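Record copied across here:
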Amino acid sequence: MENELKDVNPEPSKPRQPEPQPETANDNASNRDDRPLLKSDSKGMSTANIEDLEKKFAAFVRNDVYGTMGRGELPLAEKALLGFALVTLLPIRVMLAMIILFFYYSVCRICTLFSAPNRDVEEEQEDFAHMGGWSRAVIVRCGSFVSRVMLFLFGFYWIRESYRILEQPQNKSFTQNEGKDQSGVPERPGAIISNHVSYLDILYHMSSSFPSFVAKRSVGKLPLLGLISKCLGCVYVQRESKSSDFKGVAVSFVGAVTKRVGEAHQNESAPIMILFPEGTTTNGDFLLPFKTGAFLAGTPVLPVILRYPYQRFSPAWDSISGVRHVIFLLCQFINYIEVKRLPVYYPSQEEKDNPKLYASNVRWLMAREGDLVMSDIGLAEKRVYHAALNGLF
């Protein structure tokens, strides 16, 4: 998530080697530390200097009017605007959002009333994503419309989208069938690869392409969100597991994602996957190391870059609690989102054989085209930063 567009690939003869990454720390972060991001267990860091922390963890630093963790001292004018929005805009938006959510839940309930979900006992997955016919069409079209309405309700009245066409390198040759299947049709990407800035990313991608995505297993057990996530075809992961079999669970999850990406590539009726290979959110100016799960299948991917320009409150969900972020977001009268879609990226044979190289090259391309700074920190460092901030405030 194209013969003439295959120029996005680095030259096969000189593939870009992946830069050193603390992959072990990033990939195992959830195994070592499943503490809530904003809960501090470290009192020893309570005297750390905020400026030093911000230099070290720049990818997670908030630079808006509301300051670190959304607890900065606000100007008088901002306090007045916030106070007015709290008693007028916030309750209206919350009420309408709940109505829209229950409406879509009702649509999903009706459309799946006489259908049994697809079950994968081995992977412990269950979904309605492969359901066909009119019911699937209603779920997809209604879901895309509802997602766009939700964004509009949250103040994203306009979405600025651009489509990047990259020039083909002069020293790169192509064959006629490159990037196409045996029938001559351009290969379908198995996944959309996106940078991760906020939970709002999901709403945008739902409104544009209605893909499946990764969700916590606990979400699938909720009565309302559970049915919606199953209609989306979510792949569930037990991120906070502490069991001795956690490694087996992680391998099973990666296998489920790889399988779904391969299905989306081969079968047009299968929902495409949206994957955020950074594994966590940033402040929108950085791009963290990519995990390889999205690239193991070796299928083409569609890179998409999201930016959230702001003047007062940043929609990025980086170092602020979820409740505080939602309140401030809904109290902002206008929010902005910019989307840059790159051409489908077709991996070379070397990249198919080396998922780390594939992930690194796609990351490098997205950083260059999105004017993003590549950072080597990840979720493990984000937990340290949040713990330190919580001890300071």
Notes: DSSP finds 14 helices and eleven strands in the chain. The chain has a mean pLDDT of 81. Residues 89-111 form the longest helix (23 residues). The longest strand covers residues 301-307.
